[in-house]
From TrEMBL:
Name the record gives this protein: Uncharacterized protein
Domain of life of the organism encoding this protein: Bacteria
Length: 69
């Protein structure tokens, strides 16, 4: 198992498209060795509230949660 630190930022239109709401989620996940970034993205994206799942992903990062020596 490897621990990953994940950040995802999603933007959705508000006020009839005249503005945007941005939501950022940070999460630490333990995943099996060999899990792909794509699989991590799908897991995190599907765990977002439904209204955010229709938004645009502005940023995504999944990095091992450790500081290199």
């Amino acid at each position: 198992m490897t621990e990953f630190f994940v950040i995802i930022t999603i933007s959705i239109p508000v006020n009839n498209g005249t503005g945007a709401m941005h939501s950022t989620l940070t999460r630490t996940l333990r995943v099996s060795t060999g899990t792909t970034r794509s699989a991590i993205f799908e897991h995190v994206f599907k765990s977002m509230p439904r209204q955010l799942q229709s938004g645009n992903v502005m940023f995504f990062s999944a990095e091992p949660n450790r500081i290199p020596h």
